[in-house]
Design a protein that fits this description.
The protein is built from 16 helices and 18 strands. By secondary structure, it is of the alpha+beta class. Strands 1-5-6-11-10-9-7-8 form an 8-stranded mixed sheet, with helices on both faces. It has a 5-stranded mixed sheet with strand order 13-12-14-15-16, sandwiched between helices. The structure holds histidyl-adenosine monophosphate. Histidyl-adenosine monophosphate binds next to strand 6, strand 10, strand 11 and helix 11.
């Protein structure tokens, strides 16, 4: 038997339905924020990531999937989305458009890591990038996107950690302070950290091996090395976060594992029991120099990405019930060959008219077809019968109340529209946290908008 490669997943069945639901919420959220979907290649020239993500990062030194293609070009499977978006921004001269350019992506990334819970070799990131604005409001707004996404999905235990690395001057000062601090005791740290001291000392703070070492815990803090301008900027970002009512903690040693950051950096942790150590579900920051590094014009940028695998895992651990509606609306049943022929075109006709329809494909008898309809949670059954069809009539059975009706073929669509329109939301028992229900338990649709109203409340209001 051929098995899947290490660190990869098959996302199938209920799991796949959850992912699809999360995708839908992402698309609708991005529409509200007015971000445009962007799709860039899954592989790029290796140089893009070496220059973009940084030669000194773990991602580039140890984790990329590199290969030569048949034309002898050096190719890398993308380990993250930002570098590709920046390349595309430059190549398509998007800097010529009135800015900022606001894009989002949702796709697979590849890192050759040691597989463990929450750390995969193939994983999916939803991310956003804003190119062409240095406004601190953008920093706060980008942070608000994952926060709102998690909230809309019903995830409760999240902690937002932010920090500022400051501008180039502040970052250089901080770098020097770290070199001074670590040099006398560097042999107490891992071999990689000894290398990092030479290439990029900030990376030491991000070391997965030495993360609990006292030396790291007592290291200089970025905040003490910010110049006045960077300090002021950080204060502004914080005040916009407060304006957006986003709770955050300042983590003065947060530096992030990629080289391109400056000013704001942030991580969002899932504080959910049983999650394990890879609990950062989303992260990002400002990367004002990257467009220039990749030969574009000076451009201020900010972005973030969230790992969908970790996000769905957090939702599972919190036992969040996603309002996944996978019920079939109509199940078309038949026995004779003429009924089957009629079923074939009827199913097609109903689908073309917007109904979710299934039928029989394995030669089951009528009794087994009823069972199959129940398995598919069919709301209505269409019971084709040669006698009825001769009179241009169709028998429809409500699979819940078991009531049956003979409906004229001409009237079928009206009948179905009328009977199925109220059934498209799956209501669940939930302690609804919306502003209207204040934690009270009711049959809730589970959908909450940005104003923290649930849809059932809106419907109640409309009534
Ligand atoms: P990152 O911190 O490397 O940042 O990844 C962002 C998120 O992707 C992580 O918080 C995690 O949820 C998920 N992730 C990363 N590696 C793995 C893995 N091996 N297995 C499963 N999930 C993983 C970036 O990638 C930046 N490009 C984010 C960004 C966008 N910064 C600015 N714009």
């Amino acid at each position: 038997m051929i098995t899947k490669p290490k660190g990869c997943h098959d996302i199938v069945g209920l799991e796949a339905k959850k992912w699809k639901y999360v995708d839908k919420v992402i698309d609708s959220l991005m529409e509200k924020y007015n971000y445009t979907y962007a799709r860039t290649p899954i592989f790029e020239s290796s140089e893009l990531f070496h220059r973009g993500v940084g030669e000194g990062t773990d991602i580039v030194t140890k984790e990329t999937y590199d290969f030569k293609d048949r034309g002898d070009r050096n190719i890398t499977l993308r380990p993250e989305g930002t570098a590709g978006i920046v390349r595309s921004y430059i190549e398509n001269k998007m800097y010529g458009e009135p800015g900022p350019v606001k894009v989002y992506y949702n796709g697979t990334m590849y890192r050759y890591e040691r597989p463990q819970s929450g750390r995969d070799r193939e994983f999916t990131q939803f991310g956003v990038e804003v190119l062409g604005s240095n406004d601190p409001l953008v920093d706060a707004e980008v942070i608000s996107i994952p926060v709102l996404l998690y909230k809309m999905l019903g995830l409760k235990g999240i902690v937002v950690k932010i920090n500022s690395l400051g501008d180039k001057e502040s970052r250089d000062n901080y770098r020097d302070a770290l070199v001074k601090y670590f040099t006398p005791k560097i042999d107490t740290l891992c071999e990689d950290c000894q290398e990092r001291l030479k290439k990029n000392p900030l990376r030491i703070l991000d070391c997965k091996v030495d993360k609990d070492n006292e030396l790291l815990k007592n290291a200089p803090k970025t905040i003490d090395y910010l110049n006045e301008e960077s300090k002021k900027r950080f204060e502004e970002v914080k005040s916009f976060l407060e304006e957006l009512e986003i709770d955050y903690e300042v983590d003065e040693r947060l530096v992030r594992g990629l080289d391109y950051y400056n000013h704001t950096v942030f991580e969002i942790e899932a504080s959910v029991e049983g999650f394990g150590s890879n609990n950062v579900i989303g992260a990002g920051g400002r990367y004002n120099g990257l467009v220039e590094t990749l030969d574009g014009p000076e451009t201020a940028c900010m972005g973030f990405a969230t790992g969908l695998g970790r996000l769905v895992q957090a939702l599972d651990l919190e036992e969040v019930k996603l309002p996944i509606n996978d019920d079939v609306e109509l199940f078309v049943m038949y026995v004779s060959d003429t009924e089957k022929k009629y079923a074939t075109s009827l199913v097609q006709y109903l689908r073309a008219n917007g109904f979710r329809v299934d039928t029989e494909y394995t030669g089951r008898g009528l009794k087994a077809q009823f069972k199959q309809a129940d398995r598919l949670k069919a709301k209505y059954l269409i019971l084709l019968n040669d006698e009825d069809l001769k009179n241009d009539e169709i028998k429809i059975k409500n699979n819940k109340t078991k009531e049956e009706e003979l409906v004229s073929v001409d009237y079928l669509l009206y009948y179905l529209d009328e009977h199925l329109s109220d059934e498209d939301l799956d209501y669940i028992d939930e302690e609804c946290e919306c502003e209207h229900h204040h934690g009270e338990e009711h049959k809730c649709c589970g959908h909450h908008d940005e104003g923290h109203h649930c849809c059932c409340h809106q419907e109640e209001e409309e009534e």
